[in-house]
């Protein structure tokens, strides 16, 4: 057997030299490292991890020595684990002259083939990021991808640890068609793995659509609408949010599944023609109500004509609520003059006498 023959061969040289010498050495030299390696007891491993297609002796036992590179089994598929009965492993080792294995009471040996998993979601995100960088696509949640062939998670040998690198890309914005190729590099000497994906990419927006047909002048309820993603090209600029739709009135008949736009809606009519209404008269310190009949249809804030059923007079009133209109009564005000009256001045009683000339004084002689 290999192990027995190797021990005998390695021990022969030092024993012959010792017999030729009449005097033994003072201190026994250490054993040859090759002998120490052979004398180590092979120990079975309970779990084995391999990276290639073969399971070798050095994978299943410690202290395999020169037999470590001998293949004894094919490895399981990438990313999977298989189990081998201990008796089967020992028999395979014995076939290659490896004996005296310490099994440590292990009943079976599990073998896992290491691999790198590349989830389909990761590939999808790489496609979206490519479209964002090169073609100005928006947020990932606003991009819908359709694949010509459904992509699946990829399992690669563990030596392929590189990132997905873009190597080729084509995109037609009119049709949304894309053809993108990525490459993953491995360890030195490994041929890069190429991954090609094709399909259609569409930018979408969350929009409000009707869940049932809505008649003209019908008020929309919360159960009448839903949020759906539609292609961005189909969504008009006047599409509105869900909260702004609830309680509004349809200007025209709308079909189920239709995207709701602001031009499709109006404020609901709170007062309709010939409807009985409450007339509210309000002024400073005064609040009166009376019964009336609307002569026009109006929504909140509209000014409509209303007939006062008590006075039989027609008044203009503002719609303030369902079946309610308000008349604001103006209070006349008397404005005091800002400038006080000025009394006329009395005429002057005294006339000015004309000036009397003064004769010059006579010269005085002495």
Report on this model:
It comes from Rhodopseudomonas pseudopalustris. This is Flagella basal body P-ring formation protein FlgA. Its main location: periplasm. With 366 residues, this protein is an alpha+beta fold. 16% of the residues lie in helices and 34% in strands. It folds into 4 domains: 2-19 and 31-114, eubacterium ventriosum atcc fold (Sandwich); 118-205, no CATH class; 207-266, Antifreeze-like/N-acetylneuraminic acid synthase C-terminal domain (Type Iii Antifreeze Protein Isoform Hplc 12, Alpha-Beta Complex), CATH 3.90.1210; 269-328, SH3 type barrels, CATH 2.30.30. The chain is built from 6 helices and 23 strands. Strands 9, 11, 12, 13 and 14 form a 5-stranded antiparallel beta sheet that branches. The chain is elongated, with a radius of gyration of 52 Å. 14% of the residues are buried.
């Amino acid at each position: 057997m290999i192990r027995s023959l190797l021990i005998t061969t390695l021990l022969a040289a030092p024993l012959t030299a010792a017999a030729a010498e009449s005097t033994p050495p003072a201190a026994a030299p250490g054993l040859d490292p090759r002998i120490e390696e052979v004398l180590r007891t092979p120990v079975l491993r309970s779990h084995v991890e391999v990276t290639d297609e073969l399971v070798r002796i050095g994978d299943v036992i410690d202290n395999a020595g020169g037999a470590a590179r001998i293949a004894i089994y094919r490895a399981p598929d990438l990313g999977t684990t298989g189990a081998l009965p201990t008796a089967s492993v020992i028999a395979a080792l014995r076939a290659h002259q490896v004996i005296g294995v310490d099994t440590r009471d292990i009943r079976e040996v599990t073998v896992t083939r290491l691999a790198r998993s590349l989830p389909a979601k990761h590939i999808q995100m790489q496609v979206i990021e490519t479209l964002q960088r090169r073609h100005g696509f928006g947020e990932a949640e606003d991009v819908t991808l359709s694949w010509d062939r459904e992509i699946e998670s990829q399992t690669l040998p563990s030596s392929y640890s590189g990132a997905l690198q873009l190597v080729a890309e084509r995109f037609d914005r009119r049709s949304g068609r894309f053809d993108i190729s990525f490459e993953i590099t491995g360890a030195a000497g490994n041929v890069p793995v190429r991954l090609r994906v094709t399909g259609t990419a569409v930018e979408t927006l969350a929009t409000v659509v009707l869940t049932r047909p809505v008649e003209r002048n019908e008020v929309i309820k919360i159960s009448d609408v839903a949020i759906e993603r539609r292609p961005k090209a189909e969504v008009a600029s006047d599409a509105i949010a869900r909260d702004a739709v609830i309680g509004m009135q349809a200007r025209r008949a709308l079909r189920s599944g239709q995207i709701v736009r602001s031009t499709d809606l109006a404020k609901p009519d709170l007062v309709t023609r010939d409807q009985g209404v409450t007339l509210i008269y309000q002024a400073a310190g005064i609040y009166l109500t009376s019964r009336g009949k609307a002569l026009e249809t109006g929504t909140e804030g509209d000014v409509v004509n209303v007939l006062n059923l008590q006075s039989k007079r027609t008044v203009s009133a503002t719609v303030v609520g369902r079946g309610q209109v308000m008349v604001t009564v103006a209070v006349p005000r008397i404005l005091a003059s800002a400038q006080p009256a000025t009394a006329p001045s009395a005429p002057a009683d005294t006339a000015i006498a004309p000036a009397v000339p003064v004769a010059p004084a006579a010269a005085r002689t002495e």
